Amino acid sequence: MKALTIDHTVVERFLKYVTFDTQSSEESKTYPSTEKQKKLGEFLVQELKEMGITDASMDNYGYVSATLPANMTTAVPVIGLIAHMDTSPDVSGENVKAVIHKNYHGQDIVLPGDEAQVIRFARIRNWRSRSETTSSPPTERHCWELTTKRESPRSWTPSFT
């Protein structure tokens, strides 16, 4: 296999991914629950193939799989990575505009476009010099982090007012 070609940073990729409307539906009896979720999957497959991962594919249920061969001769365990691509059915995934708050210091974040939407991260006020990502309109994607956390993501809950 040839060396992988990576032309974009993690941040650039993230900012592209959040533009896909992947809102799920609780009423649906299909998998995924909305066909629009597959658009992100198709994009990811294309991107993986462009990077040189030739077996990248998506099945009828929207599951993307790909194999990145080991780059060493020593036998090593296989690692699997799993992530969901859908977002909450409670909030629209359309027209999401991610905002990166550089050097975030734990202060409240007022979302652009709706000053009534304020995110308060009470448990992370002691964090310094990190970046936080939010979106407008707010979706569960605003909770995704671009930097390393000091505690488990399950140990904090953002609050909205």
How would you describe this structure to a colleague?
With 161 residues, the chain is an alpha+beta fold. The protein has two domains: 1-90, no CATH class; 97-160, no CATH class. It has helices spanning 10-17, 37-50, and strands spanning 57-58, 64-65, 97-104, 109-110, 118-120, 130-136, 159-160. A hairpin with a 5-residue loop joins β1 (57-58) and β2 (64-65). Residues 140-161 have low confidence and may be disordered.
Task: Report the sheet-strand fraction.
Answer: 15-25%
Q: Give the biggest sheet.
A: 3 strands, antiparallel
State the helix count. 2
- In the sheet with the most strands, the strands line up as 4-5-7
Q: Report the mean per-residue pLDDT as an integer.
A: 75
Q: Which terms summarize this structure?
A:
single chain; about 160 residues; alpha+beta; 2 domains; three-stranded antiparallel sheet; 2 helices; globular; disordered C terminus
Short description:
With 161 residues, this protein is of the alpha+beta class.
Which secondary structure elements does this structure contain, and how are they paired or packed?
Layout: H1 10-17, H2 37-50, E1 57-58, E2 64-65, E3 97-104, E4 109-110, E5 118-120, E6 130-136, E7 159-160
Antiparallel strand pairs: 1-2, 3-6, 4-5, 5-7
